[in-house]
Amino acid sequence: MTAVLGGRPLGVTALASGSGDPDYVDVRQRLVVVGNGMAGARFVEEVLERGGGEQFAITVFGEEPHGNYNRIMLSPVLAGEEHEDDIVLNSHEWYAGNGVTLRAGVRVERLDAAAKQVHADDGSVTPYDHLVLATGSRSFIPPMTGVRAEDGGLLPGVFGFRTIDETRALLAAAATHRRAVVMGGGLLGLEAARALQTHGMQVELVHAAPYLMNAQLDAEAGAILKRSVESLGITVHLDVFASEVAGPDRMRGVVLADGRRIDADLLVVAAGVRPNTDVAVRSGLEVERAVVVDDQLRTDDPDVYAIGECAQHRGEVYGLVAPAWEHARVLADVLTGTDPTAEYHGSRTATKLKVAGVDVAVMGLNTPERDDDEFLVISEPRRGVHLSVVIRDDRLMGATLLGDTRKVAFLTQAFDRGAPLPAERIRLLVDLSDGKEEVGVAEMPGDSQVCNCNGVSKQAICDTVAGGCSSVGAVMDRTRAGKGCGSCKSLVARIVEWAADGEVTEEASASWYVPGIPLPKPDLIAAIRDQDLRSVSAVFAALAPGGAEDARSKMGLTSLLRLVWGARFVPENDAKFINDRVHANIQRDGTFSVVPQIKGGVTTPAQLRRIADVAEKYEVPMVKITGGQRIDLLGVRKEDLPAMWDDLGMPSGYAYGKSFRTVKTCVGADFCRFGLGDSTQLGIDLETRFQGIESPAKMKLAVVGCPRNCAEAYVKDVGVVAVGNGRWEVYVGGAAGATIRKGDLLATVDSPAAVLQLTGRFLQYYRENGNWLERTYDFVPRIGLERLRAVLLEDSEGSCADLDAAMQRSIDAYTDPWGQDAAAPATPGQFRTALPLVDLPTVPVR
Amino acid sequence: MTLISLAATGTTAYVVGRVDDVPPGEGRAFVAGGTPVAVFRLRNGALHATQAACPHAGGPLADGQTDADVLVCPLHLFAYRWTDGGSPGRVGGLRLYPVRDVDGDLVVEV
Ligand code: SRM
Ligand SMILES: Cc1cc2nc3c(=O)[nH]c(=O)nc-3n(C[C@H](O)[C@H](O)[C@H](O)COP(=O)(O)OP(=O)(O)OC[C@H]3O[C@@H](n4cnc5c(N)ncnc54)[C@H](O)[C@@H]3O)c2cc1C
Ligand code: SF4
Ligand code: FES
């Protein structure tokens, strides 16, 4: 627990250059930085970048023994998503290599401004010509009875969340304790709560304000956020503060002001921060809420500056890294003389919550302030979505994105740069078109920050590409852009593509079908055929480096072998994902869901009766109509699956596989007064023909009887639309899941038989050429509609007959897995419970 | 389930079932003296035993997928090393238990 983060391998102390030579006289000015955090270290980098290493002998004092690390990444470290070694920004080695003296683990006590000297707690006295305070802030521990132990330190079990040492201590405590209380429902508190939860802790959050993130959100958005947070399983107590920590030897619970008591063994205090101003106060500098500075970051002593969270500029104290970095830039310009007139005029701040499952991004105002401010709100509390923008004089003054942050990149640009706004304001919040780039990466200024977590600008990405890195992955590794919360990944990819002028190379492994076998899909298929490899273990033995099995490759290989060999494939249960082993979808508590086939969404009273009987007999906790027009029996015990299938007597609906799923239909010509074709029958025919066919990713279809599109055919992997006179349009590559895309019109054909044939041909082409887990909404644009038309309609590759035949073989190989395994288990104990005998987040019974 | 011996190590060995109860490459859940465990038999013959519930969110590990190096939980696909139960980037790891084949009996020490 005491390892020095970013320490030198042999514990060597950093030495300033030249100090080994007895005759050496350093004529440089002495620049001393107090505080080795995100502002202080960035400032040193900025000075060095401007050639300041020649001008200044730089000394940095840091109270923490570590090198400089990315404080904002402590949340992912606490969540176990990131390793502490990966958040080091400047190691001790870096300081030494740049001739900067790092006095790590040394705390500065005060300045003697008259003598221009720094007094530190190790008794040393260091003279300076220019001094920069970058002491940041510390966790604010509100007064609570019993929060401190007798020695004045925090009671064991009580933690702040500001430093790596506190994070390490929290991680250790989380591993051995079960119940935590987090005090504070701001960004930090929410991130801490979620992180602790990933360690299996039960977490309750206590927030003194009436709604969460009250500094950034309005009450309405705060209320929606509360629901989203609660749905993660975190209990939220609002409008109440903790008045007492129950002890006495260690933290055993907290008592709220209203008298309630929450038992817990760990308390994280994230109730705000206080700037570290003690050095400034003791040195007689002007301090209000923080150290007061002017537009050149100067305090009332002309040789002393303050930057980052310990600085107060024009009445503002910031708690974010972006302003700290702006301070660092301006001050470096001023001190090195690069731009002696440089000034800082305040920051427009934007924040993002780094909590998986709860997307929040906020910038600027959250409510209109003037009568003529434009204010647009989209609020969908049930979905946990709340989006708003405030516009003044055609300029974006603020935005709140809760539950859906897809527009954050564009809005951040508009907010930071005053980019022009679309006349239809609603386009700021939702995509009305089908995915045209809203903000061209070409127009983005070089210094605009792309990755906020790791502080990477567009320019840095372009420079890395210019320096010879030409794959997205390599650029991400080198710059760490996209390696924080991940929300900027797609933007990073677009910039790399643009910077490389289309010359993006893919890492070799990016072309592999699965990570464990170094072959792209066509070569892998060829090798499987040539060497007659019929089982997943045979593929590993023959083609994997060293014959080594790879757990993550097994599912993809099972799918591929089934495609290649059809009925002649040799299945191995351990090579299947659990869903495919038991032909049902695993759920959060380890139970399964059963979705019988209901072709085209058409059922019968007899079927419904059987489903009802089965649901009662097996005490199914929830029966639900799915979004795929069928019925889901959720929360079924693994042991009950075979008997249930037996009783149901219906085939599997394949709701669990990477395979052909459903065909949704509308009522069509038989009943609907607008119907132009028998969409229901065609849907049933499609489902009958292609049921259960495995594929790189899910295949979901729909057929509608007219362009009113009641069964959403325009947004399906294959969507069929009756257009009259016996004609049908066939769309491919549509999506309305995580991605929304209208399908491309492949062809208009003139009979249901032609629809069946073209669909089969397209699906087979996708099966053979799609990457593992690549849905058609990515596949179709990758291949291109022109090429698809040429191959599938004009037979440009002479492959149509083969495609049709291969699809027919797969169709012939279909067997209903429910009928099959119910008769004889594939392996012993196939349906034995794996449910641990401990409490799980159980699915509620309705 | 039979109690075999009270070892000097402070652990107790239990026969939880037969080796054949675990098909090659798969895992099965058992209870060893009140402790739920998941036992895996790799295709190379190696046996491993771990806690039954995933430390992340309680996933049923016996339903996971394996190779010679790791166990992958079926719920969120975290991978745990057989060597020390650690998972890249995660701190709290998986508890491993000694397991061996005694004349076809699966013996787990907890
Ligand atoms: C049951 C159902 C929700 C419902 O109650 O209606 C459902 C449930 C799940 N969906 Fe879905 N999806 C359901 C209809 C849809 C639809 C609507 C549709 O099929 O018309 C979509 C949008 C269409 C699409 O597929 O794009 C949909 C888009 C997704 C996605 C996003 C896929 C994408 O690439 O955009 C996922 C995640 C994934 O596949 O990785 C997903 C994944 C899931 C999984 C399987 C999550 C998982 O991997 O375990 C859910 C299983 C819950 C459970 O415990 O059983 N589900 N899901 C629907 C079952 C339909 C059926 O009868 O088969
Ligand atoms: C868990 C967490 C998550 C965060 N997430 C985000 C985020 O997503 N986005 C965002 O913009 N911001 C985030 N922040 C805030 C961000 O980290 C701070 O704004 C930033 O670190 C401020 O930089 P600073 O240099 O002013 O202070 P710090 O980084 O705190 O550095 C100050 C340093 O000075 C040292 N020091 C203090 N006094 C002395 C002394 N007397 N002598 C010597 N050394 C001294 C301290 O030990 C410390 O190392 C987060 C913060 C935390 C804790
Ligand atoms: S059913 Fe679909 S939308 Fe609902 S939580 Fe699961 S994956 Fe998400
Ligand atoms: S429960 Fe195992 S990875 Fe989430």
* Strands of chain A, total number: 42
Output the strand order for the largest sheet of chain A: 5-2-1-9-21
Derived structural class of chain B: mainly beta
* CATH topology descriptor of chain B: Rieske Iron-sulfur Protein
Helix coverage percent of chain A: 25-40%
Strand fraction of chain A equals 15-25%
Amount of beta strand of chain B: 35-45%
Write down the overall mean pLDDT of chain B: 87
CATH hierarchy, class of chain B: Mainly Beta
Straight-line distance between termini of chain B: 13 Å
CATH-derived architecture of chain B = 3-layer Sandwich
Continuous helix count of chain A: 25
CATH homologous superfamily annotation of chain B:
Rieske [2Fe-2S] iron-sulphur domain
| Oligomeric organization of the protein chains | heterodimer
Structural class of chain A: alpha/beta
Counting H and I runs of at least 4 residues, what is the number of helices of chain B? 0
- Low-confidence region ranges of chain A: 10-19, 434-438, 837-843
Rg calc of chain A: 31 Å
| Distance between the first and last residues' Cα of chain A | 47 Å
Keywords:
heterodimer; A: 846 residues; alpha/beta; five-stranded parallel sheet; 25 helices; 42 strands; elongated; B: 110 residues; mainly beta; Rieske Iron-sulfur Protein; four-stranded antiparallel sheet; 0% helix; globular; binds siroheme; binds flavin-adenine dinucleotide; binds iron/sulfur cluster; binds FE2/S2 (inorganic) cluster
Describe this structure as you would to a colleague:
The complex is a heterodimer of chains A (846) and B (110). Chain A contains 25 helices and 42 strands. Chain A is α/β, with parallel strands linked by helices and 846 residues long. In chain A, the strands form 13 sheets. Chain A has a five-stranded parallel sheet. In chain A, strands 11-18-12-13-14 form a five-stranded parallel sheet, with helices on one face. A five-stranded antiparallel sheet of chain A has the order 23-24-27-26-25. Chain A is elongated, with a radius of gyration of 31 Å. Chain B has one domain (2-100): Rieske [2Fe-2S] iron-sulphur domain (Rieske Iron-sulfur Protein), CATH 2.102.10. Chain B is built from no helices and eleven strands. Chain B has strands at 2-6, 12-18, 27-32, 35-41, 47-51, 65-66, 70-72, 79-81, 96-97, 99-102, 105-109. In chain B, a hairpin with a 5-residue loop joins strand 1 (2-6) and strand 2 (12-18). The two termini of chain B are 13 Å apart. The site of siroheme has 23 residues of chain A, from strand 35, strand 36 and strand 40.
